[in-house]
Structures are given as structure tokens and as C-alpha cells.
Amino acid sequence: MDTLLANNLTLGYGDSIIIDSLDIKIPKGEVTVLIGGNGCGKSTLLRSMARLLRPKSGEVVLDSSDISKMRTKDVAKKMAILPQSPTTPEGLSVYQLVKQGRYPYQGFAKRWSDEDEAAVTQALEDTNLMELKDRTVDSLSGGQRQRAWIAMTLAQDTDILLLDEPTTYLDMTHQIEILDLLFDLNQDKGRTVVMVLHDINLACRYADHIIAVKDKTVYAQGKPEDVVTCDMMQHVFEMLCDVREDPLFGTPMCIPHGKGRCLIKQAQAEAQAQQKQTV
């Protein structure tokens, strides 16, 4: 199984540095989730790991090789990426989209084969899309569209999957559907999954390994129960919260402080009590 790591990695756009001197190693065969505040560099880091952004310094290493020195198709045979909110050409069917995942294996002397067809069929089956394969992608629900894009990455037949906010804009039902799918792919197929998530509680539920990004580098990394603490939430997200044990899964569960209807009821009760004392 392929390894993926970053050594002394510095990333940015123009004169702006987004990630500075970062070192990480992605655990093989596990689910890793990147967390952090908006604009902290999670997506930038993921893009660099997929060789979509050239480092200013340092290197991303894939299977002992500097990824910047590898051929594009060689990288695509080892690692697939699903960017944030991908767009589909109008009228493209699910089957046609998933076929795009086989591009690393095509070439002048290599045409569509039984192996390619088998990979596409397997990807459609893994994502429960066989019955929808002839539907146009733009006619699907949000969760179904996201499954179609994931199927395309699966058709690449890579050990590593990189996903940038795969649950963005999805309702709770579809979020769980997508995350359950990725969890099953990890458990049943041994795929290494790396993804960016905003929901800390879902990150804790599905991740084996969490990397919290702050101040252009890694603030903390490790198991969810070691990383997600009240102190981390305050420093990384600048938010006060309680961290309890999820009653269903035993993973950390963040309960943010802030205003809400319960505080209104509490204030009303205190006002009523005070009024009675005055009377």
C-alpha cells in the first residue's frame, strides 16, 4: 500500500504563505480528517498532496518518490482526488462520468478494455448507482451526485482517496450516507481516505486520525480523543465548548457555548424567581 507524507512543506499563492514548514505522515489504510478554521489552509494542503499546487519549498512524498517529479498518470494510478463542489458538464450520464476515472490507464496504444469496464462496474456497485447509471448527473439529488463523483474516483482504482469537503451543501441524511460509504470503502477495501470536514463531531465519529491545522502548520494530530479537547477547540477555532463522550459512539462530542433558546428560558425563569422574592 502506498505511503503519503509531507516534509518541511511550505505552500502559498504569490507572496502569501498559507502553510509554513509543515510535516505530516498520513497513516496507511486509515481515515484521516483535516480540521481547522476557515482559511487555515486545509484545502490548500490537500491540493498540494494531490499535486495540484506546487510547493514553494519542501516536498510531498508518495511511495518514497517526490510527487513533483512523477508523471501525472503515475500519480493518478496511486491517488485520486475529489475537489470541493465539482461541476459536471450538462447532459453527462453517471456512467460517462465514472468512465472518466479510467483516464490514467488510457493512451495511444491502450484503449478501453474489459479491465476498464470491470473497474467502472465495480465502482457503480460500490456506490449503489447501477440503477442510475444512465441518468444524467445533473438530474440527481445532491447525495446521489456526490456518490457519482466518488464512484469516478473509485474507478481510478487507487489506494489513496483525497476528498475536499465531500459533505458540503448536503443535508444531514446525505452527509451520513456519504460518510458511511467512505467508511465502508476504508473498512472493506482497505482504502486510505484523507478528507476535509467542517463538522467536528462527524470528524471524530469517522476518523482514525485527525490533523488540526492552525497558524500555517499542524497544531495537533492523533486519535480523535487525543486531539479534540476544549483547549484545542478554543485555540484552533476560537470557540468555547464542552467536550463530552458521544453516547452512541464513545467518540468526542463538542457542545459549543453561545446563545440559544435554553438561555432565554433560563433568564425568564430567573426573572420570575426574582419577581416572586420581591413580592
UniProtKB/TrEMBL annotation:
Chief site of localization: membrane
KW Nucleotide-binding (keyword) present: yes
Membrane-topology descriptor: Peripheral membrane protein
Keyword annotations: ATP-binding, Cell membrane, Ion transport, Iron, Iron transport, Membrane, Nucleotide-binding, Transport
One of the record's GO molecular function terms: ATP hydrolysis activity
Intracellular or extracellular location(s): Cell membrane
Chain segments annotated as coiled-coil in the UniProt record: none
InterPro entries, alphabetized: AAA+_ATPase, ABC_transporter-like_ATP-bd, ABC_transporter-like_CS, P-loop_NTPase, Siderophore_ABC-ATPase
Domain of life: Bacteria
Alphabetized Pfam families for the sequence: ABC_tran
Domain ABC transporter: 4-240
GO cellular component terms given for this protein: plasma membrane
GO biological process, one term: iron ion transport
Name used for this protein in its record: Siderophore transport system ATP-binding protein YusV
Species: Halobacillus karajensis
Name of the gene this protein is made from: yusV
